[in-house]
Amino acid sequence: MSPSRVCQILHEEHLGTQRFVDRLQAMLGRHPRAHPDRGDPAVAGVLEDLPRALGAELAGHFDFEEERLFPLLAADGEAAIGAHLTEEHEAMRPLFGRLLDVGAMALTAGFGDATWSEFRLAAAELCGQLLAHVQKEEMVLLPLLEETLDPESDAGLCDVYAGNAGGIPP
Q1: Helices and strands, number each (H, E), in the chain
Q2: SS3 breakdown of the chain: % helix, strand, coil, rounded to 5?
Q3: Secondary structure of residue 148 in the 3-state scheme
Q4: What is the pLDDT of residue 134?
């Protein structure tokens, strides 16, 4: 059987998430206490990429897994991994919201001491959770999907994920 296309897409997204987390962690490391200048190209780049990285990519990734992949695995007797990963998604979603809100304000008005502290703490927490989460998905979820998906299911899921089938219906 050829490798799953949907697993390859998810793997590539995991690599993108890791690259974004690396950039975010580098920003946090360069500014452990004093807030960064939003005019710094590295800082502006992270802030500009937050909506895409957290809002579009990760939220869409999480929704797709929860609505399409986890039920498929549950039907195959593998409900525990979906339940566990969904709990992790739920723990990260509020952090997404906080970072998106504070990041948007910082992009237009810069950070103050209080907003930097809030952003820094939420970002550090999210980075740790995301890296552990990606590792679990790479080590457990993707191999289970490789075993579970037949070529037709894989192709259908790719179409849904790419938006060719009208999005992800509930």
Answers
A1: 8, 0
A2: 80, 0, 20
A3: helix
A4: 96
Give CATH superfamily name and number for 5-162: nmb1532 protein domain like (1.20.120.520)
pLDDT score recorded for residue 57: 78
CA quadruple 147, 18, 86, 52: dihedral, nearest 10: -120
Q: In whole angstroms, give the CA distance from residue 90 to residue 20.
A: 20
Per-block mean pLDDT, blocks of 10 residues, the chain (170 long)? 86 94 96 93 95 85 95 95 97 94 95 96 96 97 95 93 55
Phi, psi of 31 (to 5 degrees): -135, 70
Task: Give the separation between CA 48 and CA 92, rounded to whole angstroms.
Answer: 20
Q: Between vectors from CA 138 to CA 58 and to CA 154, what angle results, nearest 5°? A: 80
What is the Cα–Cα distance from 115 to 110, expressed in whole angstroms? 9
User: Concatenated DSSP letters for 80-115?
Assistant: HHHHHHHHHHHHHHHHHHHHHHHHHHHHHH---HHH
Q: Which residue has the tokens 């566990």?
A: 84
The residue type at 69:
L
Find tokens 């703490």 and name the residue: 121
